[in-house]
Amino acid sequence: MNSQNKHELIVSGIHLILTPSLKDFVREKAERLFRHEERIVRLRFELECERHPARGMQFKAKGHIQIHGPDMNATVVADECHQAVSMLIDKLDRMLQRRHQLLRLRRHQPNAIDISAETPVALS
Predict the structure, then answer these.
(1) What are the boundaries of each domain within the chain?
(2) What are phi and psi of 24, to 5 degrees?
(3) Residues 56, 13, 61, 21, CA torsion sign
(4) What CA dihedral angle connects 13, 17, 20 and 22, to 10 degrees?
(5) What is the CATH number of domain 8-101?
(6) How many angstroms separate the CA atoms of 114 and 38, rounded?
(7) Is the entire prediction scored with pTM above 0.85?
(8) pLDDT, tens digit, for every residue of 83-107?
(9) Which residue from 56, 70, 102, 124 puts its CA 20 to 30 A from 93's CA?
(10) Which helix H or strand E contains 83, and what residues bound it?
């Protein structure tokens, strides 16, 4: 991350040992979100490894974006940890793009005013 940015990135592992290469992978992928939206205050990723007897190992990636406005949360499950992180970043990116589009539409469409309603007469 750039030292001029005041973004915070938190990566934690649940039933999983975070290697430096995995942390670097998450940081590199998260840069895309920080470039996309400058108002992100904090990104928190939780990577979890679940062992199922029938399905084998599955990795769950949870992402939490704290931003000025409502926070965003997403969860993705995949067979590989790196794949789960990539899918999660894609999902969070789509959520941020949709949020940006909705805010832009709201900004350019003022509230409708009913002109046909009777206007009050000024008293002189």
Answers:
(1) 8-101
(2) -65, -40
(3) negative
(4) -60
(5) 3.30.160.100
(6) 37
(7) no
(8) 999 999 999 999 998 988 887 777 7
(9) 56
(10) helix 81-108
